[in-house]
Structure formats: C-alpha cells, structure tokens
Amino acid sequence: MTELFDQVRERVRRNVPVVIATVVGLDGSPPPSFARLGATLVVAGDGPSAGSLGDDALDRVVEADARRALLSGSSGLRRYAVHGAGDGRPAAAAEPESGGLTEASGPTLAVFIHAIEPPPRMIVLGAADVSAALVRVAKVLGFRVTVCDARPAFATRTRFPDADDVVVDWPHRHLAAIADELEPCDAVCVLTHDAKFDVPALVAALATRAGYVGALGSRRTHADRVARLRAEGVAETDIARVMAPIGIDLGGRTPAETALSICAEIVANFSGTPVASLRDGSGPIHRPTRA
Amino acid sequence: MQDILDDIDRWRDEGERVALVRVVAVEGSGPAGPGAAMAVSEHGEVSGSLTGGCVEGAVVAAALEVLASGLPRLCTFGYSDEDAFAVGLTCGGVISVFVEPVG
Q: How many beta-carbon contacts under 8 Å exist across A and B?
C-alpha cells in the first residue's frame, strides 16, 4: 500500500479519522482470482475512498463496513466469503462473517479493518509551572495538547515546546470556540488557580462533552468555586463532574509529581478504574514531608 | 500510528525502504490491541512497539524478510507456535501481525 500510505499519513497528520481495509489472509483453494495479499482500500470521512481490494462488489461491501468503523473507531478482522472466482462471473462478496483466522468454508478473504482515530485531546488552561509539566506527561501518553492562557508573556512556545498548540486567549472564550470539537475521550484541566478565571473556564468546560474536567486548588478553594458555579446556574450533575482537587493522592509536591497525579486520574477515569482521587479524600492535599 | 510517522518519513527521506507492522488480532492477554503499529527500516531500526517487547525481535526479522522479498505477510506469534520459546508472548497470548512494505 505504498501509494495509499501517503493518503493515510496525510489524514493522520491532519487529525482526520481514516480507515485502512487491507487483505491480510486468503483461504480456500483456489483462492479468488483477484485476491492479492496487501490489497488496500482507504476510507476517510473527508472524501471518496481510494484503492481497491481487487473486486468492485467486494469493495462496496468492505467500504460500508469501513464507514461504520470510521464512526465507531473500532478495529478488527473481518472475513468475507467470495464466489464467482475463476468461473468467469464477477466475484462478489457475500455477507461478511466476523471471526478469527482459522475457520473457513469456501474461498474467503480476511480483511483487517483498521480505524485510526485522532489522538485524544487535553486542553490545559493556565500557563503555570504545573502546566508545563502536565504538557510533557500528557504528550508521553499520546494526547494532543493545547495550552491556553490570556497572558501573552506566559502562553509562549518557548515555555511549552512540547504543546501541539499554544493559544493566547481567555480560557473560557477559547473553550467556547472549540466546544463542538471536544469528545468524551478528551480532558480539560483548569489550572488557572484563580476564581475569576477558574469559574468561567469551568462553566465553559462543563458545557462541552469532554469526559474529564479537573480543577487545581485546595478543598477550600473548590468549595468556594462550587458556590460560584451554583450562582452561575450550573447544574449539580455538572458540578459533580469536576475532579477537584485535581489528581489522585500520590503524596507528591513538585509540578512533575502533580502532573503525574493528574494524568493518573485521567487514565483511571477513562478506563473506569477506581483510584484514590484527591476529590474523594479529606484534609489537606499536601501532607507534611517526612523528616 | 501517529507516533511512528516522523520516523517513517525520515527513513524514506534518507532513501531507506520501510515495513509497516500492524497487529490485526490478539487472543488471550496482550497489552496492544488490533491497530497497534510499528515500523522497521531496512537497516533494522524500529519505531513504535506492539507488545512491550515480547515479540519485537521476531517481528523485526519478519519485516526485514518482507522488505527483501517485497511480499506482504501475515505472521502469528504465541505459545501455540513451535518456536514458542523463542518468540512466545510472556503474557500468554497469541498475536497476529500483518507486515508490508510502505515505501
């Protein structure tokens, strides 16, 4: 798929979802005359499909499955029964059967439907020391990271060389601008640490579909924020979405340790794994260091 | 996939041929699901990872063969293989990977 790979790469670079359907197995004797290992069909949401598995009827069936995978984001192996091979009739694909690589009756093709989704996003609001550490850890985890701060002196490429985007804007305004892009797999981290920025940012974050919304600050800070969010008319169910104090209880102190605790909470939340979130504990979030 | 594109581009710019290796099926326990990808240059450099290390060595050997022959291949690794001791997944799974040249 050397030629088609460039089309895949270009989509991945632009964060456009793309599906690669590749013939990875041929079964039955003789195998369908058109069948070629590695034959590929590329399907993306932003244009017509490209390439071919060698047969128009098969392409149509596989393209329909690929378009479904484009929406679901799930990859897997599918087996397609083919007939007409070698007898002069055009080959056609029968109902696909899902299954592993072993079962076969009649000529079949195993096609790997490979859905490549854009990476999850993390929106970091506030350009503090913790933000810089958080960007680094989030990049290691594969997030596409945006840092946003209203202060041009702080929101700079120099301070956040690893970030995918550095935006100088009011956090709540930027969130409102990208609200439609955020999905349940995305995270918003409010690190502005000042009620006059935190509260509008949280209001905007809770209006998105982001699956994780966390906010930096002590329990007292957050109690004050909750009162302000209520005053803004934010629903209790939305207020309950906020992970604050942000992060899990690792007993860390440094920006890097805080970043690790935030990312650990995000990974755990997205996988549905119970962890010791600071939000669910009590008392000061920073314990005295041991002598 | 995104994480290996820079390496693939660099190798291709340097005139090296590149094999793409993708996990197409996993049975049993395995850290990487279908779609996990790594790339191997014709000089045996590796980008990305499929399993955390258990089969990568055998995958590189398969990728170099594919580059030499130009023919894509489906490879299965795991305890059911006769050379299980050489390339078995320590976690006890079976993994199928598709190896093909991409330039």
A: 61
- B78 — pLDDT class (breaks 50, 70, 90): confident
Asked if residue A105 belongs to a domain, the reply is yes
Distance CA A260, CA A269 (A): 14
Indicate if A13 and A91 belong to the same structural domain: yes
SS3 content of chain B, % helix, strand, coil (to 5): 30, 30, 40
ipTM surpassing 0.90: no
Among B8, B34, B102, select the one facing A75 at the smallest CB separation.
B34
Contact residues, chain A, for B22 at CB < 8 Å: 112, 114
Q: What pLDDT does residue B95 have?
A: 86
Q: By residue range, what is the domain housing residue A7?
A: 2-116
Indicate if the pLDDT at residue B68 is higher than 70.
yes
Q: Which residue has the tokens 């979030």?
A: A285
Same domain, A138 and A38: no
Same domain, A125 and A111: no
Residue that is written with structure tokens 């892009």 in the block: A181
With bands split at pLDDT 50, 70 and 90, how would you rate the model's confidence at A99? very low
Is 80 exceeded by the pLDDT of residue A5? yes
Helical (H) or strand (E) element with A17: none
Q: In whole numbers, what is the pLDDT of chain B averaged over residues?
A: 84
* Partner-chain contact A100 B24, CB within 8 Å: no
Please name the residue ranges forming H helices in A166-235: 171-178, 195-206, 219-231
Residue A213 maps to a domain: yes
Domain assignment of residue B63, given as a range = 2-101
Place of tokens 């209790």: A236
Distance of alpha carbon B8 from alpha carbon B26, whole angstroms: 25
Paired with B27 in beta bridges are B94
Contacts of B103 in chain A (CB under 8 A): 2, 5
Helices A195-206, A219-231: crossing angle, 10 deg rounding: 60
